[in-house]
Amino acid sequence: MMTRRSLLAAPALLSAQAKQPDIVIVLTDDLGYGDLSCFGHPNIKTPNLDRFATQGIRFTDCYAAAPVCSPSRCGLLTGRTPTRLGVYDWIPEKSPMHLQRSEQTFAKLLQQTGYATAHIGKWHCNGLFNSPAQPQPNDHGFDHWVATQNNSLPSHKDPVNFVRNGQPVGPLAGFPPLNPSASLPASIRRTKRWPPRTPSPRNTAKRRPANAPNTSAMLPKWTITSAG
User: Fold this and answer.
1) Catalytic: which of 69, 74, 119, 144?
2) Residues 6+ away with beta carbon under 8 Å from 167
3) Contact (Cβ atoms closer than 8 angstroms) between residue 109 and residue 4
4) Contact assessment for residue 183 and residue 172, using Cβ atoms and an 8 Å cutoff
């Protein structure tokens, strides 16, 4: 069982290893339990996400910290209940609500063990994005970031509102987060290690649908134990 204590102890465990693993979290926004074909959806095809399921662990009883984006993101970053963080709902632009600078995040902890960390895509942990009035991704442990406050504007294709390490990027062609070579700084593309932590507990429910395929036989038998 992964607890907050074991999460906070993870950097010490990683530093003792000869080779630290690469860690990548792909967080999907507003994804429901039954929206993936590997969880039994009869029409939606998600072959790339299904490949994650067959090559890793498919959680059938796992929970997000909140049902909407901002508090669930802050909960994932810190391992804390979002209401304790003061982030209790979706954060509108220019809102005073934000993830406090004093909070400990897994990105800060991983930096302490020598990881190069990066955040790419939607941030949505503050209302005053790219403003010194509130902490930004770099204040929460990310060495590099290419992000938006909420959604890409005017649409996900050809956005104009991405910010790279505090500097507006300007118009970008296509779907930048899906084409990293077009949007990421060379320093990120060359980095030896990438950010965050354990698999994301994003929007899953109590029950496995009756028509969901059984992929458990294809999954590695991993055990996560609590430290201390």
Assistant:
1) 69
2) none
3) no
4) yes
For this structure, is 140 an active site residue? no
Cα gap 115→100, rounded to integer Å: 22
User: Which residue, chain included where needed, has tokens 């909140």?
Assistant: 66
Per-10-residue mean pLDDT of the chain, 228 residues long, equals: 55 60 86 87 92 86 88 96 94 96 96 94 96 97 95 92 94 74 47 40 38 40 36
**Residue pointed to by tokens 């890409």:** 152
Q: Quick check: is 69 catalytic?
A: yes
Residue 179 and residue 7 in contact, taking contact as beta carbons nearer than 8 Å: no
CB 143 within 8 A of CB 193: no
**What fold does the segment set 28-212 form as a domain?**
Alkaline Phosphatase, subunit A (3.40.720)
Spatial separation of the C-alpha atoms in residues 40 and 150, rounded to whole Å: 30
- The catalytically annotated residue of 98, 119, 124, 144 is 124
User: What pTM was computed for the model?
Assistant: 0.70
Provide the residue ranges of all domains of the chain, joining segments of one domain with +: 28-212
